[in-house]
Design goal:
The protein has about 375 residues and is α/β, with parallel strands linked by helices. It has helices at about 10-20, 35, 40-50, 60-70, 85-90, 100-115, 135-150, 175-190, 205-210, 340-345, 350-360, and strands at about 5-10, 25-30, 55-60, 75-80, 95-100, 120-125, 155-160, 200, 215-220, 240-245, 250, 255-260, 265, 270-275, 290-295, 300-305, 310-315, 325-330, 365. The radius of gyration is 24 Å and the shape is elongated. The protein binds pyridoxal-5'-phosphate.
């Protein structure tokens, strides 16, 4: 019997992919980096593909190899890698590579020349996030080198792409600015003789708010897991439930300090329940005294500090026993908190809540698709 578990509803991921696909004329790239935002990369990828996604997106070459080794054949893009890493393996496994610079393009071309393989590449322009992507001033030269390498059969420029900085703030003027620069970058690619099959700019927030950013492909992460970063009428369902079982209860007198540092003092005689999940499992220590939980249908908050392996809940005079279920967050359908509630409580984003939970030691169970 589990004492703490993550339950991942793959049916929800599949249905979310289906809803998102219906919301755009573009193809869907399911972003399954960071172990599928903590939901399991392989399982999430399969569920998203079952729901109609046609591409997969990851950061690292290791993440891409993991999916290929599991037998997943869908078109795939990896965008965060270092020249000198084993590109031949990735190219051989038909993993397309995001290319932001001349040094990256040169590395891809050299490996293609040495192996006789044609490398699928997606050239990235920085339109204003100031993170990855070629500077606008380097774009023309990057296109020229890419066009020459494509003519030699060394690379195939499959995509041109960029990433938005403020899509989760609908109406932010940078979205229009980035979109305009992206159009200009596409024009330049055309002038260089390139005809990328997939032009892509939008993330989840842009998929939900800005159809003019969809182009041929949208890269969808968080919405796929049921946690839209902006208001939406789509009935997306959170796929991750995090829960644990009460492992110990006791009565405390009024005025007792609870957990390290005594940041919580019992306001009256009360019952406390010990929950065996802590920051080593991904429960943020910043959730001390504020993280919401549900026990036997009632809402409580964490009392005192979150410890490495456990935290305490003050349940007042409620009947709570060893083995009772403590839901940290779930879909919200049974009145339990959601990952979004946790994110608001500790002033972060739901991405961080689910990703941290999924990278801890908690047993993860997948349900919903055979
Ligand atoms: C993570 C990521 C995405 C997905 O973003 P969401 O907000 O989760 O939809 C898309 N594109 C890039 C480049 C990313 O790094």
């Amino acid at each position: 019997m589990w004492q703490a578990e993550l339950e991942i509803d793959l049916g929800a991921i599949r249905d979310n992919a289906d809803l998102l696909k219906a919301a755009t004329s573009a193809e869907i790239m399911a972003v399954v980096k960071a172990d599928g935002y903590g939901h399991g990369a392989v399982e999430s990828a399969r569920a998203a593909l079952a729901g109609g996604a046609t591409w997969l997106g990851v950061c690292t070459l290791g993440e891409a190899a993991h999916l290929r080794e599991a037998g997943i054949e869908a078109p795939m893009l990896a965008w965060l890698w270092l020249p000198g890493q084993p590109l031949g393996a990735a190219i051989g496994q038909r993993v397309d590579l995001g290319v932001s610079s001349h040094s990256q393009l040169t590395a891809v071309i050299e490996v293609a020349r040495a192996t006789g393989l044609t490398a699928g590449t997606h050239l990235k322009i920085d339109t204003g996030l100031s993170r990855g992507g070629a500077a606008a001033t380097d774009w023309a030269a990057l296109l020229e080198t890419a066009a020459a390498a494509q003519a030699e059969g060394l690379i195939d420029v499959v995509g041109v792409w960029s990433h938005l900085a403020n899509a989760d703030s609908p109406g932010h003027d940078s979205v229009d600015r980035q979109l305009k620069l992206f159009h200009e970058a596409l024009e330049a690619a055309k002038r260089a003789g390139l005809a990328p099959r997939v032009r892509h700019l939008a993330n989840s927030a842009a998929l939900l708010t800005r159809p003019d950013t969809h182009f041929d492909l949208v890269r969808v992460g968080i919405a796929l897991y049921g946690l839209p970063p902006v208001d939406t009428t789509l009935r997306l369902k959170p796929a991750m439930t995090a829960r644990a079982r009460v492992i110990h209860t006791k009565r405390l007198a009024e005025g007792e300090g609870v957990s390290y540092g005594y940041t919580y003092i019992t306001p009256r005689a009360t019952t406390v329940a010990l929950v065996p999940i802590g920051y080593a499992d991904g429960v943020p220590r910043h959730a001390s005294n504020i993280g919401p939980v549900q026990i036997n249908g009632a809402r409580y908050r964490i009392a005192g500090r979150v410890c490495m392996d456990q935290f305490v809940v003050d349940v007042g005079d409620a009947e709570v026993s060893d083995g009772d279920e403590v839901v940290l967050f779930g879909s919200g359908e049974r009145g339990e908190p959601t990952a979004e509630d946790w994110a608001r409580a500790i002033d972060t984003i739901s991405y961080e809540i689910v990703t941290r939970m999924g990278s801890g030691r908690v047993q993860r169970t997948h349900i919903g698709i055979a």
